[in-house]
Design brief:
Blueprint: H1 2-21, H2 23-39, H3 47-59, H4 74-79, H5 94-98, H6 100-106, H7 112-154
Length: about 160
């Protein structure tokens, strides 16, 4: 049992170190995947398009760096900026979303990349604290399992 707990402890420790060391690569990959999701955004509501809509609605953001990122997509040429960028769904017409100057007043102007990464970084202290607590319990479990094993061996 102590060996199993030690193995799990080491796996969690390695995952935490790798996550910390490669956090910049994770950000870069997220940004490139978000750009790709915007480029391939469509109306058929695939998983990537739904994820983009959910991020934009939840974090009140639009595009990767800002709302003008949508102007480089095929979707913008057909329909304009998506409705998930609108500040108010009632006050957002198709004509407004096709004109970048009018859209600036109707949609969220901040990009999603900065908001997602800053939200993740602000929650990292909570995740680190919980992970540290679990690691402490695992270490206590390992010590108690070794003590029990030693006690059984002596008797």
């Amino acid at each position: 049992y102590a060996m199993l707990l030690s193995l799990i402890f080491l796996i969690v420790l390695v995952a935490a170190v790798v996550g910390f060391v490669f956090r910049h690569e994770i950000k870069t990959n997220f940004e490139s995947n978000l750009n790709l999701a915007l480029k391939n955004y469509n109306v058929t509501a695939d998983q990537h398009s739904e994820a983009v809509d959910t991020i934009q609605r939840t974090l009140h953001c639009c595009g990767v760096q800002n709302y003008s990122d949508w102007e480089k997509t095929d979707y913008f040429a057909q329909r304009g900026i998506p409705r998930s960028c609108c500040k108010s769904q009632d006050d957002c017409s198709v004509e407004d979303l096709r004109d970048p100057n009018k859209a600036k007043l109707k949609v969220f102007v901040d990009g999603c990349f900065f908001l997602v990464t800053s939200t993740m970084e602000s929650k990292m202290s909570v995740v680190a604290g919980i992970s540290f607590g679990i690691a402490c319990f695992q270490l206590v479990g390992i010590i108690l399992a070794c003590c029990l094993s030693q006690y059984i061996t002596n008797n």
